[in-house]
Amino acid sequence: YPRRHTLETQLSKFNLTEIEAMLRSYTKVLFVRDPFQRLISTFMQGMGSSPSFSSFVQDVLDSGQHNAKVAWKPLISLCQPCFVQYDYVVMFGSLRQELGHLLQRAGLPVDSLLPKFTDTQVQWTYSWLSEQMFRELSLQQKKQLSHFYRWDLAAFQFASSFLSD
Known about the structure:
Blueprint: H1 16-25, E1 29-32, H2 35-44, H3 53-63, H4 75-79, E2 88-91, H5 95-105, H6 110-113, H7 119-135, H8 139-148, H9 150-155
Parallel strand pairs: 1-2
Helix pairs in contact: 3-8
């Protein structure tokens, strides 16, 4: 898309005609991750000031969706998948397979560009960690988190998400 010379990178900074032209001219890829795993990752990276995972989750819930930080904001509000028709949706946990397909579709050599992923090991680790962290939460927190991420859970098939129940 012959974009005007600007430093703006958010679609909301462009007018509707420009947005439509850009979206038609690009291959749109959306990378998604289970919301509960995103919370765990954010907590483990120390992005919250809470001493326990349970208190961190409570801080997230208390902040509400409109005041949520990008690290834990629902994906639906960040990526607008109902308005933007993404060409590919790539799930965390199957990156090697998905990225290999994307590179192949782009006509690029898959083996030379694709880093080594250990998807199975990552999935097992997050499954174990999710189970441990989920146990720390009260029933009320679990219900509130499921409600907080209800649209993400409806839009994307996070088959093994603890929040789906």
